[in-house]
Amino acid sequence: DIYADEGISGTNTKNRTHFNRMIQDARNGKLDLILVKSISRFARNTLDLLKYVRELKSLGVAVFFERENINTLDTTGEVLLTILSSLAQDESRNISENSRWGILRGFQNGKVFCNTTRFLGYDKDEHGELVINEPEAEIVRRIYEEYLDGKSYQAIARGLMRDHIKTVTGGDTWWDSSITLILTNEKYYGALLQQKTVTV
């Protein structure tokens, strides 16, 4: 089989469904050799890499890293793996730090970091600046006006569905939680608040 988790970081294994399926297949005796393009494709965390390589080795499953030309069943395999996986882990950390630096510089220069794919009433122009999407903005104004007139979140949602107004994703169902998010989104009064969440 081919086990490929596209677009998912190799820094940990939690969200790597195909990687975890591969390990389970090895535990179930379905594999005797795993071919990997390079160490960084297998894992960018030295502890994870050694843990899984050792487990696979104990199951009699070899992992062959093509770029580095390492077979884990060879005696010299683990020493080389430890050194090279440390380099892969460090490379991943450098990429992360460089990305963070770029984002922080963007904040300082007033660059807009705002995804408009699920942001009702706004699009981005060719310069990456927010521009009002007038048809969608009408829906936003209606929501705010109805709330100021004393309507509940549920009543606003029911009214939008009654009038067959589509959601930002093109759906038919408006939830009161969606109305809450729109009414509490600081971007609608002109403030772009960044770093509201953090990924450790």
What does this protein structure show overall?
- The chain is mainly alpha-helical and 200 residues long.
- Helix content is 46%, strand content 8%.
- The radius of gyration is 25 Å and the shape is elongated.
- The protein starts with 16 loop residues before the first helix and ends in a 17-residue tail after the last helix.
Structure in a nutshell:
This protein has 200 residues and is mainly alpha-helical. The protein has helices at 17-27, 39-42, 46-58, 77-108, 134-148, 153-162, 176-183, and strands at 33-36, 62-65, 70-71, 122-124, 130-132. It contains 7 helices and 5 strands, in the order αβααββαββααα.
Layout of strands and helices, then pairs:
Layout: H1 17-27, E1 33-36, H2 39-42, H3 46-58, E2 62-65, E3 70-71, H4 77-108, E4 122-124, E5 130-132, H5 134-148, H6 153-162, H7 176-183
Parallel strand pairs: 1-2
Antiparallel strand pairs: 2-3, 4-5
